[in-house]
Amino acid sequence: MRYRGDTRFQRGARQLPQLPRGYLQNGYFDSQDNLWPEIIQQWPDEIAQTFRDGRLTTTQLRRFFNRARALEKELKTKTKTFERLKEDVATLKPIAAASVGRKTAPDIFKQFIDINVDLVLRSSDSDALVRGFLTHFQSVVAYLKYYEEKRR
Length: 152
Fold this sequence. Notes:
The chain is 62% helix and 0% strand. It is mainly α and 152 residues long. It has one domain.
């Protein structure tokens, strides 16, 4: 039964942006420890278009990416172990939530961060952060920059 205020069935009702179908269901790596191709190309392209439509700028995204990249530096300089670094990785989720709350980022950005952070936190290997999440995130930033420049 449809209700008068229910917009789900109205013609032209706007569908909320979603991450790609099957997004990260199999993690970052295949059985031979190679990144899935869609991690670098297909999904970042689709996600960047969604971010652009949600009015997220490359500058805003890069600020967040740089925060994540700083965690990699701590790992490489052995300032912290990967297990200890997971605490800092987990803080990316509330920071993303705050950005969405301030309306400086779309809801889909929080979903993107939440899924990726959860995947890193479940991993026992730092490759999930460095080769998986950061490589994927860097590709999203690059595609978003491409779409920003194309729009000009």
